[in-house]
Amino acid sequence: MKILFTGGGTGGHFYPIIAVAEAVHDIVREQKLIAPELYYAAPNSYDLDMLTANEIKFVPVAAGKMRAYFSLLNITDTIKTAWGIIRSITHIFFLYPDVVFGKGGYASFPTLLAARIFRIPVVIHESDSIPGRVNLWAGKFAVKVAVSFAEAAIYFPPNTVAHTGNPTRKSMMHTLTEGSLEYLHLEPNVPVILVMGGSQGATSINDTLISALPKLVENYQIIHQTGRANLTEVAGRAGIILDDNPLSSRYHPMGYLDDLTLRMAAGAATLVISRAGSTIFEIAAWGKPSILIPLPPEVDPTGHATKNAFVYASTGAATVIEQNNLSSHMLISEIKRIAGNQVLYEKMSVAAKKFSQGDAARTIAKALIDICISHEK
Prior knowledge:
Distance between the termini: 12 Å
Oligomer: single chain
Radius of gyration: 22 Å
Order of helices and strands: EHEHEHEHEHEEHHEHEHEHEHEHEHHH
Mean pLDDT: 91
Strand order of the largest sheet: 3-2-1-4-5-6-7
CATH superfamily of the largest domain: Glycogen Phosphorylase B
Number of helices: 15
């Protein structure tokens, strides 16, 4: 039983693949099947320790971005992609997996093309409400297509597409509440706001939050993921703005939240403020109301993040503040509106849980295993 995973080199592609791999191992153990051989093809390993922990072998495959606008980088990236296709054909010839699982992104193109050449079954998953170009192309020949948002189903053949939700790692499906106050040095009975701008941080969110801190610490504690590179600068500015403030200890800047810290922070959190990437699905699994601040058009010209944010908000689980409209006053007002209204808060929490489909990884893993077993017969 051989399964080859492929996807772009971002957490939004990588972690769902890990979630599916976890589910594959679970099903194999439960059904006492032969241990699978798992591979991950991408330009970089992203997190080699996590691949090793899940018994996934890394297969390096070059890939270049396919930009829709003119850029001299398109020339070098075309060469990278061509080389990646050659490498992928070689890898697949020798590995000959039973099925290829594509998570989308330019990095998955060489492997998916090689799979098509060798007529190896392809299963893909689309996280966005509007599919990316690689998945739109792969959806034409994929035997199964899974989507996180029901709205994305219309872009794929109806006989192959299923609304599964987004695969989420088991560790991220459940928050930790016991011991979280002590672990994070929080006060009891004071609401906690968890602010996440992604692993690299988000300058606009950081700046707005710092301006709002004097007001926020009056009623809330703040756990702020600043991004590793921003921690010193953000903490320094916050120290100045909260100088002599008796409640300054309620602000907790952190460069990066590892799995344990994130689960503790999520368990303690009353409300989450975040970008609108794959974190949406973790927030939904936690059942936490959220304020989403998607990337602006100049950074995300496709508008996928904004579309995802508004689709999720339409369920009642979140509100959206577009970055161009973001201000400290608006942020403070929205936090008070949600955290201060118990009826609204409960409705948003229920909506978040309803949106979350905790069995997505297992559903996809079962489909992959079924294809592998059918090949062995």
